Amino acid sequence: MMRAMVPEELLVELDRRLEPVDAARLAAYPGESPDRQPVHTCYVPADAVVPGLSTAWGTAALAALDEHGLPDLGLDPALVDEVLPRVRAKLATEPVEDLRVDAEDGYRGGPGAEDGDVRAAAAVLAAEPVRPAYLGIRAKSLEGPTRRRGVRTLDLFLVGLAGSGRQRAIVTLPKVTAAEQVAAFLPVLDALEQSAGLGLDLELQVETPQAVLGADGTTTLARMLHAGGGRVTGLHHGTYDYSASLGIAAAHQSADHPAADAAKQAMQVAVAGTAARAVDGSSNVLPVGERAQVHAAWVLHAGLVRRALERGFYQGWDLHPAQLVTRYVATYAFFRAALPAAAARLDAYVHEVAGGVLDEPATARALATVVLRGLDCGALDAGEVQVATGLDRAGLDRLAGRRSGAG
User: Fold this and answer.
1) Strands, DSSP E only, in 23-118?
2) In 75-145, where does DSSP find H-type helix?
3) How do residues 236-254 score in pLDDT, each as one tens digit?
4) What CATH number should be reported for the domain holding residue 212?
5) pLDDT of amino acid 110
6) Does 201 lie in the same domain as 350?
7) What's the whole-model pTM score?
8) Are 92 and 175 in a shared domain?
9) Is residue 378 left, alpha or beta, with left meaning phi > 0 and alpha meaning psi from -120 to 50?
10) How confident is the model at residue 131 (pLDDT cuts 50, 70, 90)?
11) What is the CA radius of gyration of the chain?
């Protein structure tokens, strides 16, 4: 019999040298978050937060759909007919999955009004009987001129949510330019958590060239993310600030510009293997006005949503209630179209059936995750998924590496 030739003492030394590397990698890259990811974040200025906000957005979206009807969105008409009842039901029950109160670029109140506006917004949301699954605030940046104002706004808003029954909230930090800003902000987050009695997650907005490429020629995104010490749950692309900072003319600023794609691909690489998500930006072409204008905006928005989904961005920004129509039509169509092929490949993988595609564990995780995303947002039903895949929710969770029932 042949014997292994590498001596045991060399293997012991190999383990000794690499065990700290293994531990550091696992700490920095614990794997994707097992929790549900919302399909969008709706930004509402602090002075525009009113009682029944989420319901009002859904009602306005349904009214726009009833008034204008859907144009040709470049989707299979049969698929659109299939998803429309689901979209209507979603708009009537959970139109806003993630709400962000905006005290930054979208806020139009003056300096003297901000305290009152954020207090009022917090009071409204604390009293709402039905609230979005995810909720938070975007304050001003940590740059010198706005730093203290931004922290004060966060303090007032989050303390205003105290006692509302909500256990977690999200802080969105705009215009981040350096990992040092993130590290310096962590003690502030700790203090805010204590004063508000809320767990806080942190999102970083990628709106500046410095967030992507530092002065030393190295990429900044990963350093900013890991400077967050595990608190950062998302990198959000700021379409228009980022484009403008590169000198791109306003008429050509959009989420599908090559410059935006380059930044977002860097974001994807930075979050891979971490619990943070890369999030697409927005379209500022709003579906308002005459039918032709609304239809043109819907066609544009649906195309951007579909494009983002195809590129692995499962969340984006919505700025107007009528954008919810195409957010959900495009999203539901994507997941329903993905189900048959994903189901067949999952069945073949689980039962070790040879076929035209040889899937590995990583691919099985991706297939299961796509199905789970469809379940989470309402595009798919548990019963039809079990019939199609032969797997219940717990089985899909296991394949995807999620905690059972995490969605």
Assistant:
1) 40-45, 98-102
2) 77-93, 114-127
3) 999 999 999 999 999 999 9
4) 3.20.20.60
5) 83
6) no
7) 0.92
8) yes
9) left
10) confident
11) 23
